[in-house]
């Protein structure tokens, strides 16, 4: 199947998290059309097996390609770690861009000796992260903090509720005042950036959204797939969870400041 420059960019995540990446994509490429698919019916991915995440991701890629996607952004650290290599091999004709914990920029920043990486249990367990930590971690103390339950809680919205800070206290409260920066290695976590700083301390936070947006721009340019339109593009939201309520939740996350 030939890819068309006037196709859309398909973006997916287990749920609302990918919207933190989508915002960077739209800021960087405002004239492209985007179709965002949130697999909220199957969230969280970060506590499933690798095989389950590969199967779910493949079904979504098939769906997005049927919808006319010219490129795919896996706006999910977990699905990138679990499935990107297999998906790229299976859909070799399609640009597939993933997101990874922003450990590289965190290690290159000044005065960052102790770096806390928050991510899902799967992301931290799989080889891709182990290799990343080996490549960039030397000379730093990289502390990996699996955060089970955090993505699921963010899916529910109402992020100023006290239980969100309570959960963060349980997950990373032990590092309060003891780290120089935090890598948000799950695309859900930027939505609770303020609450993470309240718990861990007022340190720089790093996420992979902007790097992913620039990589998408490069890949589309290389293949002659950048849109020729100069008008603002469309952003469409779809979910595996039925009902207009879920789509309204996605829109509210997209509009959060
Ligand atoms: N937002 C995803 C990530 O970046 C997955 C969270 C989840 O579903 O567990 O890892």
Distance between the termini: 39 Å
Named once each, the bound ligands are: D-glutamic acid
- Choose one word for the global shape: globular
Helix proportion range:
40-55%
- Total beta-strand segments: 9
Biggest sheet details: 5 strands, parallel
Low-confidence stretches: none
CA radius of gyration: 18 Å
How do the strands of the widest beta sheet line up side by side?
A: 4-3-1-2-9
Provide the structure class: alpha/beta
β-strand amount: 15-25%
Compute the number of helices.
11
H-E order:
EHEHEHEHEHHEHHEHEHEH
What integer is the average pLDDT? 96
In terms of topology, how is this protein built?
Blueprint: E1 8-13, H1 18-28, E2 34-38, H2 50-66, E3 69-74, H3 77-90, E4 96-97, H4 103-108, E5 114-119, H5 121-125, H6 127-136, E6 141-146, H7 150-155, H8 162-172, E7 181-184, H9 193-200, E8 205-206, H10 209-222, E9 235-239, H11 244-255
Parallel strand pairs: 1-2, 1-3, 2-9, 3-4, 5-6, 5-7, 7-8
Helix pairs in contact: 1-10, 2-3, 8-9
The structure holds D-glutamic acid (DGL).
């Amino acid at each position: 199947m030939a890819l068309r420059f006037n196709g859309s960019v398909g973006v997916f995540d287990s749920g609302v998290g990918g919207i933190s990446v989508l915002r960077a994509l739209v800021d960087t490429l405002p004239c492209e059309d985007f179709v965002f698919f949130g697999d909220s019916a199957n969230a969280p991915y970060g506590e499933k097996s690798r095989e389950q995440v590969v199967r779910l991701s493949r079904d979504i890629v098939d769906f997005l390609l049927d919808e006319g996607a010219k490129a795919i952004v896996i706006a999910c650290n977990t699905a990138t770690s679990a499935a990107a290599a297999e998906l790229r091999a299976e859909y070799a004709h399609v640009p597939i861009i993933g997101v990874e914990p922003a450990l590289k920029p965190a290690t290159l920043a000044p005065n960052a000796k102790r770096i806390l990486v928050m991510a899902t249990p799967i992301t931290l367990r799989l080889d891709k992260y182990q290799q990343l930590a080996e490549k960039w971690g030397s000379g730093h103390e990289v502390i990996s903090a699996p955060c089970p339950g955090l993505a699921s809680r963010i899916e529910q919205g109402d992020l100023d509720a006290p239980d969100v800070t309570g959960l963060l206290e349980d997950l990373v409260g032990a590092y309060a005042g003891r780290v120089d920066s935090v890598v948000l290695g799950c695309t859900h976590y930027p939505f609770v950036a303020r609450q993470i700083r309240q718990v861990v301390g007022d340190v720089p936070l790093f996420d992979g959204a902007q790097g992913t947006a620039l990589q998408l721009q490069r890949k589309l340019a290389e293949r002659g797939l950048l849109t020729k339109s100069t008008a603002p593009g469309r952003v469409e939201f779809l979910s595996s969870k039925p009902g207009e309520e879920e789509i309204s939740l996605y829109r509210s996350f997209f509009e959060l400041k």
